[in-house]
Amino acid sequence: MVFFSRRAGKSFPRSRFTLIELLVVIAIIGVLASILMPSLGAARSRAKRMQCLSNLRQIGVLQIIYQGNFDGFFCPLIAENGNWDASCGADGTMSEPGLLAEGTASDISATQNRIFQCPEAYNYTKSYTTRFAGYGYNECLGSDLYNPENPGCASGEVRSPSQTMMNSDGGYLDGARYEVTSFLRAPEAGDFNYGQLKMYGTVDFRHDGTAAAVYVDGHAATAEKIFHPVASGIRTGFLSEDLEAYDPRYRKK
């Protein structure tokens, strides 16, 4: 549609969008948005997964420093007095650093450091799961107040450092929603009364069906769920069907 204006005795055409043209433009924008949104979502997921791996690499460095400070022994899973666990304070708020930070004299506080906070576990878990929530610690490595049969171990006792997991995305299914946990149980009891298939200490495969983990040799990687002993549709589970990824002394039979 063309309109004419007069200025200083002259007339010239001026174009405007018709309703049909406007609708066509809106439709094109909608199509482009529908094409780009999945790509943007995938990019955000990849960014969170990379941040998670970076966090776990730093936790792995703390583990190695801790071993250097304590004759090669891994950080206890839970302190002998029950007041602390490895990842966070034992008051239940997950707002204070745990034994791993304390034992490395590292500058980690509840107000300024988030390496213990998985980016996918932020703001969707219970209100108390704050800056020291998201990653679980392998119970087979550190001594455990509640399992006197597990003495803990030193790094030199680990048979397969590249396959034995130290920390990983941790969580469990609580009713209809997933929550985080600070410890990881093993899929079998083994020789030291490990996991016994306790459902509250499982790995949470929350990164598009994968979980990030750091291993004894210090490398971090993502892994897929091997199995869940209750149901295959549950997001949480184990990194191995036997004790291979958990028990530092494990030997295939």
Brief rundown of the structure:
This protein has 253 residues and is an alpha+beta fold. The chain has helices at 19-69, 99-103, and strands spanning 2-7, 10-15, 135-138, 165-174, 177-180, 183-184, 202-204, 210-215, 220-224, 236-237. The strands form two sheets. Strands 3, 4, 5, 6, 7, 8, 9 and 10 form an eight-stranded mixed beta sheet that branches. It has a two-stranded antiparallel ribbon with strand order 1-2.
Structural summary, described in words:
With 253 residues, the protein is of the alpha+beta class. 22% of the residues lie in helices and 19% in strands. It contains two helices and ten strands. It has helices at 19-69, 99-103, and strands spanning 2-7, 10-15, 135-138, 165-174, 177-180, 183-184, 202-204, 210-215, 220-224, 236-237. Strands 3, 4, 5, 6, 7, 8, 9 and 10 form an eight-stranded mixed beta sheet that branches. Strand 8 (210-215) and strand 9 (220-224) form a beta hairpin. It is elongated, with a radius of gyration of 26 Å. The model is unreliable at 1-5 (pLDDT under 50).
